[in-house]
Write a structure and sequence with these properties.
Layout: E1 2-10, H1 16-27, H2 29-32, E2 37-43, E3 54-60, H3 63-70, H4 73-83, E4 87-96, E5 109-117, H5 120-131, E6 134-138, E7 142-146, E8 154-158, E9 166-173, H6 177-189, H7 199-202, E10 207-212, E11 218-223, E12 238-248, H8 251-261, E13 265-270, E14 274-278, E15 287-291, E16 296-304, H9 307-320, E17 324-330, E18 337-341, E19 349-353, H10 361-366, E20 370-372
Parallel strand pairs: 5-8, 9-11, 12-15, 13-20, 16-19
Antiparallel strand pairs: 1-3, 1-4, 2-3, 5-9, 6-7, 7-8, 10-11, 12-16, 13-14, 14-15, 17-18, 18-19
Length: 392
C-alpha cells in the first residue's frame, strides 16, 4: 500500500473563489482515478506550523497505480493549467507501508453460485434460454454455465434425489494474496473451520479456502479465478452475477459473520427485515440478508445489458409460461428495475435487472448505511402504499 500526501499553500493574491474552484476539482479526483483509496482533503488547523494552508492524502494499492495517476494526461494537464498558476509552495511525500492500510478488506465480488438440481438437463435448458447463460462444460455429475468473461457464474450439481433445487455454495473472488491471507486469519481467529476448496475449484483459481456461514451455506474465497478471452457470443445474456439474497433465521449472527469476519460493508438496512452488504467491487450490494423463520437462498441477481434486454427476457418467460414470481419492480436502494422467475426445480428465484448502483471509490469508504422503515416502497418505489405487505 502506498500513502501519497501533498501539503500546499495558495499564492496570497489568488481570489478565494479561484482557490475553492481548485479544491473542488481536487475533490473530484476519486471519481476520475478509481485506483485512489481513502482520499481526504482539508485546511491546515495546526497551531504549531502554518507553512502550508491545505493538505490532501490518498492511498494506492501499488506504486504502479500511483505512477499511473501522476503520469496520466489528465493529471499533468491539471497541474499545468490549474495548479501551478495558483499554488505558491508544496511538499509531496509518498511512502510504502508494510501492510495494507485502512480498514480490513472484504471479498472483491460474487463469481458463482453452486446449485444442486433434480433434473440437470432441464435446468441447463432453463438457464440458457431464460437467463442467457452459455453452457461451457458438462458431465453426468456437474455443469458450468457462464455469463461474461468469468469461468462460470452457475455450477450445477446433479441431485436426482432432491425434489427441488438447492443452493449449497457461493464463490467470491478476492483482490490479491495479501487480502486472502488476512481473510483466512480472520476466519480462523473467529473460531470458524477453514475448509479446503473442492478439487475442481482448485484448478480454476490460484489459491483459496472455504468456510460455512452460520446457516451452513459454504462461502468459497479465492484469487486468480480463470477468465475467457472474450464473452459469449450470445447477445441476450447477463453481464454479471451481482448478488445472492439469503433468508436466515440466524439474522444477527449471520450479519456479524459477513461484516465483522469477512469484511462486507453495510450499504442500507430495512430495519428488522433486510441488510444490504457490499464487496470491494462497489456494487450497492453483493449480498443481502433477510430476517426469516428459515434459511434458504431466495434469489440470485443477474445484471443484463440494458432494460430492453430485461424486457426481452421477460417476454420469453411469458411466451414459455415460466412462472414470474415478481413482475417488474423498481428497487429503491440499488436503483435497478427487474423481474423474477421461479421454478423450484431450478433452485432459487432468478432476478434479471437492467443495472445496479455502483458506489464511487470515495462513497465506498465514507457511505453511512441508511436505516429505512419496513415499508414496501423501500423495496419497490412503484408500490402504491405502505400497508400492502399482506398482498404478497
Amino acid at each position: 500500500m502506498i500513502n501519497h500526501t501533498l501539503a500546499f499553500r495558495f499564492r496570497p493574491d489568488v481570489p478565494a473563489e479561484t482557490a475553492e474552484s481548485v479544491l473542488d476539482e481536487l475533490r473530484s479526483f476519486p471519481k476520475r482515478y478509481p485506483a485512489m483509496r481513502d482520499f481526504s482533503l482539508g485546511r491546515n488547523i495546526s497551531t504549531r506550523d502554518t507553512t502550508y494552508t491545505h493538505a490532501f492524502s490518498v492511498r494506492f494499492d501499488t506504486e504502479t497505480d500511483l505512477r499511473a495517476y501522476l503520469e496520466s494526461e489528465s493529471h499533468e494537464r491539471f497541474v499545468r493549467e490549474r495548479w501551478r498558476p495558483v499554488v505558491e509552495a508544496q511538499t509531496i511525500v509518498s511512502y510504502e507501508t508494510g501492510a495494507r492500510a485502512g480498514r480490513p478488506r472484504g471479498p472483491y465480488g460474487l463469481e458463482y453460485a453452486r446449485v444442486e438440481v433434480p433434473d440437470m438437463a432441464r435446468t441447463i435448458e432453463f438457464l440458457q434460454y431464460h437467463v442467457g447463460l452459455q453452457l461451457e462444460h458438462r458431465t453426468d455429475e456437474y455443469a458450468y454455465l457462464r455469463a461474461d468473461l468469468e469461468h462460470h457464474s452457475i455450477e450445477l450439481i446433479s441431485a436426482p434425489d432432491r425434489a427441488t433445487g438447492h443452493t449449497s455454495a457461493v464463490g467470491y473472488s478476492v483482490e490479491d494474496a495479501e487480502v486472502l491471507a488476512d481473510l483466512r486469519k480472520r476466519v480462523a481467529g473467529a473460531g470458524h473451520e477453514i475448509l479446503e476448496l473442492q478439487d475442481r475449484q482448485k484448478d480454476l483459481c490460484d489459491d483459496g479456502f472455504a468456510v460455512r456461514d452460520p446457516n451452513g451455506l459454504i462461502v468459497e474465497l479465492f484469487t486468480g479465478f480463470l477468465e475467457y478471452a472474450e464473452p459469449p457470443l450470445t447477445e441476450l445474456r447477463p453481464v454479471d452475477l451481482v448478488h445472492p439474497f439469503i433468508a436466515t433465521a440466524r439474522y444477527e449472527e449471520s450479519l456479524e459473520f459477513y461484516t465483522e469476519v469477512l469484511g462486507f460493508l453495510p450499504s442500507d438496512e430495512i430495519v428488522g427485515s433486510t441488510t444490504f452488504l457490499r464487496c470491494e467491487d462497489r456494487y450497492h450490494h453483493s449480498l443481502a440478508l433477510q430476517n426469516n423463520k428459515e434459511h434458504y437462498v431466495a434469489h440470485l441477481c443477474f445484471a443484463m445489458k440494458s432494460f430492453d434486454h430485461v424486457m426481452r427476457a421477460r417476454a420469453r418467460a411469458l411466451y414459455k409460461g415460466e412462472p414470474i414470481a415478481s413482475d417488474l419492480v423498481n428497487h429503491s436502494a440499488s436503483t435497478s428495475i427487474a423481474f423474477y422467475m421461479h421454478d423450484p426445480a431450478h433452485g432459487p428465484r432468478y432476478e434479471l435487472c437492467d443495472r445496479h448502483r455502483v458506489f464511487t471509490p470515495e462513497e465506498h469508504e465514507t457511505h453511512r448505511p441508511r436505516r429505512m422503515p419496513p415499508d414496501p416502497r423501500n423495496i419497490d418505489v412503484w408500490r402504491p402504499a405502505a400497508d400492502d405487505w399482506g398482498r404478497f
